[in-house]
Structures are given as structure tokens and as C-alpha cells.
Write a structure and sequence with these properties.
The protein is of the alpha/beta class and about 325 residues long. It has eight helices and 16 strands.
């Protein structure tokens, strides 16, 4: 396709569904490896990486059930093969997220390097250094990471670089470790917080998610989710996968808060040139979240932008 020709002048209207974020869904799916009970997720996006992760979990022995309403059930009662082979993970770097849960639950794991890449100075080093600090014996041979540990033991882990998947991997592994693990220089992204909340609903003891220091007190077992207060807040019989962030270009005078109609799980998005969209599928748990801004949230770096998106009640 050489070009797109767009004839304007016609008012636009309509509704779109906000599906779950891939970067939130993939670690939540891996969290299912930590328990023999059923973990049920809703609002799971139908994307290639999600399908690849489902095939990967299924070949390990996880019972997988996916419906046509974006619902997913995982039950890892019997993990027959703690292996993530190259042919399944070569196109999905997030496959490294099975390493921590498999090691914590099974005492061993063998995972292909994502994409077959050499580790070198790549962020996967931080995953391996963190698991080694928790007591795992790690080796890398012929493109595969092999990890073994009778039971992981809590430790203080200072990560050289901020890594989202590294934080998620080590947080999941630490949930079943003996003692307390502290992750310093941890990632603070919303998907890290979402994973921590789901793990807490499964029985994990996690403090500090959303800050750069996360403390995890290990427990012997985790159960399925959702349970308790969070499930009641979400009013779902499954754990709701959060949508992707909405990134806006606001000037200093604009509203920078997420606003919606709480009773109907709706949020309206208004474009500066007059288009209004209604977004469905946004859980009440996320009302009030801040919207991302250029310049890392620094007011001095924000700028007005023609066609800027503004959220309003």
C-alpha cells in the first residue's frame, strides 16, 4: 500500500471496546503456573502472543479453556514438563516469564532464550542474577536456560536496570520462596501492580507494588483467583485483565485524570476536533488512574497538541 486517501468533512461517532492489555495478560497467564487450582481471567486480548503463550502452557500440562467472550481458564494441577522449547518461544520474548513460576513450583525449569538471542548484556541477565540470588543453580547451554532449586530462599535483590519482565518474574518466584524477598529498583508500571494484586488475591503477601521497592513474604501455597474483596470490587467471576494505558497530549490547563461513568464501566473520550468516542470494558478498579503524559509527567515538558485527547465525565 503506497498511500491512504481520506476524504473528511463527515462527523464521526461510534463506540469501541477496550480489550485487555497484552503486557498485563501474559504475566497473569504465567501466574497460573504457581497454583494447582484454577485461575480464571476475563477481557483477555485475542493476539498472537496470547495464543503462543496458551500453546506453551498447554504443552507443559496446563489445562486451558478459552471462550469467545475474551474469557480464559487455566488449571496447572499437573505440570508434566517444565520446558519452554525454542519452537514455541522464538517469536515471543515474554516467554521468559514462565521461568520464575516453574522454578518456584516445580523446583526446576528449562527455558529457551527468547528469540534464541545471546544473553550478553541483555535484560534477561537480570532475571538470572535475581533467581541465583534466591538460591537457584543456573546454567545456559545450547540456547537454553536451566534452573534448579529445592526451594528458593528470600533475598535482597538490587536490579542494575529497571526491567518490567524481570520484576514480574522475580516477584512470582518469590511468592513461593522461603522467607522475605526485597526487590529494589523495581519496575512501577501498571501491569506490575496488576500482577501483584492478582497474586495477592491468590494468597501471596506483597507490599510496595507501584513503587521501586517491593517486598514479598513467601508462602507455601497459592490458590486460584479471584477471591475476596478485589473480586467483589470487580464484580466479575474472573480476574479482569486491565486495558492498555491511554496516552494523551495535554497542555498545562487540561485535565489529567481518568474519568468515567462508574455505574456503567464507561469512559468517554473527546477529541479536540469534535469526535466523541465511548469506551466500554474499563473496570471500576481503575477509575482515577492518572493518564500518561509526554516528558515523563513534568509539567514544563508538556505541550498542547492539535487534536489532543481529553477525558471527561
Amino acid at each position: 500500500m503506497d498511500k491512504l486517501i481520506i476524504h473528511g468533512g463527515v462527523p464521526l461517532s461510534g463506540e469501541i471496546r477496550v480489550s485487555g492489555a497484552k503486557n498485563a495478560a501474559l504475566p497473569l497467564m504465567c501466574a497460573g503456573l504457581l497454583t494447582s487450582e484454577e485461575l480464571t481471567l476475563s477481557n483477555v486480548p485475542h493476539l498472537r502472543d496470547v495464543s503462543t503463550m496458551l500453546r506453551l502452557l498447554a504443552q507443559m500440562g496446563v489445562e486451558v479453556s478459552l471462550d469467545d467472550r475474551l474469557g480464559l481458564s487455566l488449571k496447572a494441577e499437573r505440570l508434566s514438563d517444565p520446558l519452554a522449547p525454542y519452537d514455541l518461544v522464538k517469536t515471543m520474548r515474554a516467554s521468559i516469564l514462565v521461568l520464575g513460576p516453574l522454578l518456584a513450583r516445580c523446583g526446576e525449569a528449562r527455558v529457551s532464550l527468547p528469540g534464541g538471542c545471546a544473553i550478553g548484556t541483555r535484560p534477561v541477565d537480570l532475571h538470572l542474577k535475581g533467581l541465583a540470588a534466591l538460591g537457584a543453580a543456573i546454567s545456559v547451554e545450547q540456547g537454553y536456560i536451566s534452573a534448579k532449586a529445592r526451594r528458593l530462599k528470600g533475598a535482597r535483590i538490587l536490579m542494575d536496570l529497571v526491567t518490567v519482565t524481570g520484576t514480574e518474574n522475580l516477584m512470582m518466584a518469590a511468592c513461593l520462596a522461603e522467607g522475605t524477598t526485597t526487590l529494589e529498583n523495581a519496575a512501577r508500571e501498571p501491569e506490575v501492580v496488576d500482577l501483584a494484586q492478582c497474586l495477592s488475591a491468590m494468597g501471596a503477601r506483597i507490599k510496595g507494588a507501584g513503587t521501586d521497592v517491593i517486598a514479598i513474604e513467601g508462602v507455601a501455597l497459592l490458590h486460584g483467583a479471584p477471591v475476596g474483596r478485589l473480586a467483589a470490587v470487580l464484580r466479575h467471576d474472573s480476574w479482569y485483565v486491565r486495558p492498555d494505558e491511554l496516552v494523551t497530549f495535554f497542555g498545562n490547563h487540561d485535565v489529567s485524570r481518568f474519568a468515567g461513568e462508574k455505574g456503567n464501566s464507561l469512559a468517554k473520550v473527546k477529541l479536540a476536533f469534535g469526535l466523541t468516542l465511548t469506551l466500554r470494558g474499563i473496570p471500576e478498579l481503575y477509575y482515577g488512574d492518572e493518564i500518561g503524559m509526554p516528558g515523563g509527567g513534568d509539567p514544563d515538558n508538556r505541550r498542547d497538541f492539535p487534536g489532543a485527547i481529553k477525558l471527561f465525565e
